[in-house]
Amino acid sequence: MLVIELKCVERLANEHLAQCLNYLRASGRGVCLLVNFQKPKAEWRWIVSGYQTTEAVATASHPVAGQR
Hints:
Blueprint: E1 3-7, H1 14-27, E2 31-36, E3 41-48, E4 61-63
Parallel strand pairs: 1-2
Antiparallel strand pairs: 2-3, 3-4
């Protein structure tokens, strides 16, 4: 099972990553999908509990299903 966090913000920030990590700790789950629907192309990030990264939240965009 995973946690899905949906956002509609200008861009994903480290605060959103921290929120997902808190949800994972509270729920006992291991994986969270963080999705931002603000722009025509969805911005998303997988967060895995216990995995450390030194980079800020990724800004890679991927098409929303049905859009090109």
